[in-house]
Write a structure and sequence with these properties.
This protein has 123 residues and is mainly β. The protein has strands spanning 3-7, 10-13, 18-25, 33-39, 46-51, 58-60, 68-73, 78-83, 92-99, 112-113, 117-122. It is globular, with a radius of gyration of 13 Å.
């Protein structure tokens, strides 16, 4: 089992930045692809970004390309999501997730999930 805890959410003005962290326990994340998803009120949970075990390969949703960056520190068992130039439409609960899969990473069939952290972007 992998337990995931997100942190770093909050309230920020449009154009601002936040860095989310996801710290894992119970098992090393080095064998897992790690992803970030988000869910806005009244909407389905959607893919934001993912990184394979080494961190060398990353994937981003079109809506966040050029603004968000996913990274990982396997030694700290932590994954990050740097979010720049935030927009009101980025407002959502952000979830960290882990999977052994290395393909189709934009679907939400991950094995382990955190409880989420709220990000609110004001206009």
């Amino acid at each position: 089992q992998v337990q995931l805890v997100e942190s770093g959410g909050g309230l920020v003005q449009a154009g601002g930045s936040l860095r989310l962290s996801c710290t894992a326990s119970g098992r090393t994340i080095v064998f897992y692809t790690m992803g970030w998803f988000r869910q806005a009120p009244g909407k389905e949970r959607g893919f934001v970004a993912a990184t394979t075990w080494s961190g060398e390969t990353t994937y981003n949703a079109d809506s966040v390309k050029g603004r968000f960056t996913i990274s990982r520190d396997n030694a700290k068992n932590t994954v990050y999501l740097q979010m720049n130039n935030l927009k009101p439409e980025d407002t959502a609960v952000y979830y960290c997730a882990a999977t052994r899969r290395t393909s189709n990473l934009d679907n939400n069939e991950y094995d382990f999930w955190g409880q989420g952290t709220q990000v609110t972007v004001s206009s």
